[in-house]
Amino acid sequence: MKLPKIEFNAPVTISFSVIAFLALIFGYATLGQSTKMLFTCYKTAWTDPMQYVRLFTYIFGHKDITHFVNNFTTIILLGPMLEEKYGSKDLAGMIVITALIGGLVNVLFTTTGVLGASGIVFLFIILCSCTSVSDGKIPLTLVLVVAIYIGQEILTGLTVNDNISHLGHIVGGVCGIAFGLFYQRGKPKAS
Question: Residue ranges of the domains in the chain?
């Protein structure tokens, strides 16, 4: 009996997951120092070159294995479908832009550091909900997902002090809406 070959089907999703896992291992090996220096976005001087690096790299950093698993279970589940729909290059661009916007929002509007791929998780969830947007019609499921996920983040962010970046989740969700609607607008009409 011949075993099936394993296919490298979602290069962006898999690469993102592997880099984040390596960053987690590196964080454990350095007792959290590498996570703080390389994979946590926090405000420093704009003359500090690492300020600009961390605007992107914080999405690879995670506090612990539980934080990593919580984010990457969803990313690995949804990523291949999104790569198939949008293409690896475009999905990578969406991740980079969402990371940058989330990092800038954190640096400009908060005094705390942020790390983790939670904003990307929200990007993916909303993008998946945008798959059936067509010709000026927004599916009720998209409205419900946005109301549930973003509404919960706004409510929790305003009422609970839980050391979670609800603002980062909201940024990811808003980016998901923007990218989903942008890509649907440019889609050719079916005959």
Answer: 11-185
User: 11-185: what fold?
Assistant: Rhomboid-like fold (1.20.1540)
Residues with Cβ within 8 Å of residue 132, at least 6 apart in sequence = 139, 141, 142
CA distances (Å), origin 88, targets 12, 82, 91, 119? 6, 8, 5, 18
Instruction: Name the pTM for this structure.
Output: 0.87
Longest dimension (CA), the chain: 61
Q: From first to last of its 191 residues, what are the pLDDT tens digits of the chain?
A: 888 888 889 999 999 999 999 999 999 999 999 999 999 999 999 999 999 999 999 999 999 999 999 999 999 999 999 999 999 999 999 999 999 999 999 999 888 899 999 999 999 999 988 876 666 677 787 788 888 877 777 777 666 665 567 788 889 989 998 998 888 766 544 43
